[in-house]
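Let us walk through a complete example step by step. Step one is to write down the protein sequence. Step two is to encode the small molecule, flavin-adenine dinucleotide, as a SMILES string so that its atoms and bonds are unambiguous. Step three, shown after the inputs, is the structure prediction itself.
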Amino acid sequence: MTERVTAHPVAPPEALPALERWWGSLRRREPLFPEAVVQRSSERLGSLEADVVIAGGTLGILLGAALAKRGWRVVLLERGLLRGRDQEWNTSRQELQVLLTLELLTPAELEQVQVTHYPSGRIGFRGGPSWWVEDVLNVGVDPVGLLQCLKQRFLEWGGQLLEQQTFVGATVHPDGIHIQTDRGKMTAQLLLDAMGHRSPVVAQARQGQWPDSVCLVVGSCAQGLPALDSGDLFYSFSPTQPGYQPFWEAFPARDGRTTYLFTYCDIQEGRPSLSALWQHYLQQLPHYQGVDLTEITWVRKLCGVFPAYRRSPLQLPWDRLLAVGDSSGSQSPLSFGGFGAMLRHLARLEQGIHDALSWRQLEQQALALLQPYQPNLAVTWLFQKAMIPPLNQNNWDPDRINRLLSQVFAALFAAGPQVVKPFLQDVVQFGGLAQALWGVMSRDPLLVAQLLPQVGLEELTRWTGHLTALGIYDLLYRVTGTRAEKHASYTWKHRREAWCYGSGRDHAG
Ligand SMILES: Cc1cc2nc3c(=O)[nH]c(=O)nc-3n(C[C@H](O)[C@H](O)[C@H](O)COP(=O)(O)OP(=O)(O)OC[C@H]3O[C@@H](n4cnc5c(N)ncnc54)[C@H](O)[C@@H]3O)c2cc1C
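Step three: the predicted structure of the complex.
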């Protein structure tokens, strides 16, 4: 049933040891003692040097450029150099249109940063059929090229870029926020935290809470693999391993072929280490891609530990502070596609921040409306939970997760592309989800019944609440129409937007 993992001589990714230490400390549930980097003061600051300071440049530059274009005084703080990573971000062409709509890139630049494209992606699970889907996550964006273009625009529109400058702390005053860096200080109306999921601001806001789950990823971009022009979006060919269910992703990349092995875990000692996953990856890659390891030239080896918190998107507990990008937890706990999530919310956030600055809506409750509860993200927790096998696998069918996923996707594909495509792009909609659930229950009621002890009553009750909220959000969005949209107050406008995005009604279809 299980595959023995033996040590293989190919060196692991450079980032693995540091991530392994962090993942190890999480699995041992070592207490986290976040620093108090945000303080409050009742003193007034007087005149302010900037409207917005953005800490963290990777995704921060997207909002930075958009806000600078609007004419706001924006300062972008980046502890390194503002340069994207070499590995492409996969997304869908339609999601990139926002960069044109907001006029951040020209059509020619948008074409230029899309460095790979493959027609269709496969979905399949051991022992079941395979499905092919077109135009979903099949475009590879070059982060280096994209950030270079955005940086140029940002500077042209008057933005101030402070590279190699680290955010150290902030003090919230009644009329502004004071930001301390390792090399200086500045004042602004608003601070955007775009420092990723290890942001010190988020650590303080979460008060030392451990993530509720993680997605572990290892993989590479390599040459010497068969040059297929198709991809795998979600694929599995193994039964459950001790403590985890392995899944694979593969797609053509600019410098070769990218392959990832990933799995979902809760925070428990018995879950696999990253090194064990890396060994599993090396052992199974030849079988998966039909290649001998000795024929491979490694271009990049990759790994990641993506934490997920149920309390997401995160609403920061301070005035004048808003989390964006991975730090906000607004990406799906299934895909962890933070770039895709930023594209999806970019126009909404850009408009929302513009409104908050224009209407002086910078107190905590007003900013919380810009990172609202999203039932369509919350319902996906059950799917994640269903893909995490129990640690004690007595009487556990090692193909149960594969069978369940085959049934879920059979139901999704039977419901049609209008249901399956948004789902694969992290946009769960009430109608589509209801159709899929009904499909699975009628196909294999026993399998669904077996799910209950695996996920537990508490999880199921919580999920029922989110599903109900999804239906209510959908209804509220539809019945309120665009009534008085033009003259709507800040609160009404952004509450209605929360119903739209929270029910997946923003998806263009
Ligand atoms: C292997 C791998 C593959 C991925 N593939 C995809 C994909 O195909 N599609 C997709 O949508 N997403 C993908 N992602 C996820 C995507 O890369 C992230 O969601 C995205 O990078 C998040 O950006 P961010 O700016 O929010 O956070 P980060 O990428 O973590 O960036 C944070 C930024 O803040 C800076 N910073 C941190 N602390 C400070 C400080 N104290 N002061 C100043 N600056 C600071 C950092 O230098 C960095 O530039 C992938 C991730 C990995 C690891």
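Step four is interpretation. Residues 156 and 413 are 46 Å apart (CA to CA).
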